[in-house]
Amino acid sequence: MDAKHYKVLFEGKILPGNDEDSVKERLKTLFHADDSRISRLFSGKSYAIRKNISKKEAQKYEKAIMQAGGQCRIVAMDNSWELEPIEEEQTKAGTSGKSLLTRINSRFRKGSSEPFRLIGRMGRCQFNSLCWLIMVIEAVTFLLPMYLPTIQQISTVTMGLHALALIVSVYAMTARLHDLNRSGLQWLFVIIPIVNLMFMSWLAFAKGTNGGNAYGEPPAKPGLFAKLLGLYIPAGIVLVAAAGIYLYQDELLNLIQQVPARLSKEIPGEVGGYLPFLSL
Q1: Beta-ladder partners of 8
Q2: 3-state secondary structure 136-196
Q3: What does the pLDDT average to over 59-65?
Q4: In this model, does residue 28 exceed pLDDT 60?
Q5: How many Cβ atoms are within 10 Å of 194's Cβ, its own excluded?
Q6: pLDDT reported for residue 92
Q7: Least confident of 19-23, 79-83, 168-172, 192-196
Q8: Could you tell me the residue ranges of all domains in the chain?
Q9: First and final CA of the chain: distance in angstroms?
Q10: What is the pLDDT of residue 93?
């Protein structure tokens, strides 16, 4: 069930092709209101018809008002964002539907507190799935040059794949931040060493905001493929790794203890081989 975070605002506007007096009479019947209340509705000020209701309830009011020939808005209780209006052709208001210009204008009508945004929200599973896709792109970028004949082809393909990976990465991080009700520009944290590891872990595991937020409605539920890549496979890897560490902890501890000794023996020899002047 939707969280009760919405209010229905009426500002005295009516749909094209309707007479104001007729709309007043229909709204008077709809709300069982007297003349003084109807006058307040058409005073030109924003009037909250209902508050603290769910999205479904708010859209029922919106549809009923549009059937009566009026126009209303569904806004979050904190005024941080606004729902898209329902299509007028779904009502009996006698209109053929909204034009593209009207729908765009409705986005700008929300004001500076909710600017026009093209990137919506993304859940954890979808984000983790895109992370796997980015890893595949980078793996292809690493392996493909071995099969290309010329340096020009290698550089062109490599740059193109890196650019693709970067675009997908920025999109995924921005959409995930929007799901957390954060500015998409915060993806710049990924360029800070050490901080980027904590930042990416936060994006991968943090729960998005309940209900709508300043960046739109909650993301769609992940499909089977997104769950497979974003949830089941990572969880399986973690479980297998944990089981391996538990079962072979003595061997791992032995190996870790031998690392310093091996490094002290092998690294100087390798350095001397690549840089002979150091052994002089």
Answers
A1: 50, 74
A2: HHHHHHHHHHHHCCCHHHHHHHHHHHHHHHHHHHHHHHHHHHHHCCCCHHHHHHHHCCCHH
A3: 88
A4: yes
A5: 7
A6: 40
A7: 79-83
A8: 6-108, 124-225, 248-279
A9: 76
A10: 40
Please give the order of strands across the beta sheet that includes 70-76.
47-53, 6-14, 70-76
In angstroms, the CA 142 to CA 205 distance is: 28
Q: Judge whether residue 182 has pLDDT over 70.
A: yes
Dump the DSSP string for 224-245.
HHHHIIIIIHHHHHHHHHHHHH
CA angle 88, 100, 109 (to 5 degrees): 80
What is this structure's pTM?
0.53
In which residue are the tokens 């997908």 written?
168
Q: Could you say which DSSP state residue 272 is in?
A: H
Query: Both tokens of residue 111?
Result: 């004001």
**Pairwise CA distance, residues 249 & 90, whole Å:** 64
Strands 70-76 and 47-53: unpaired
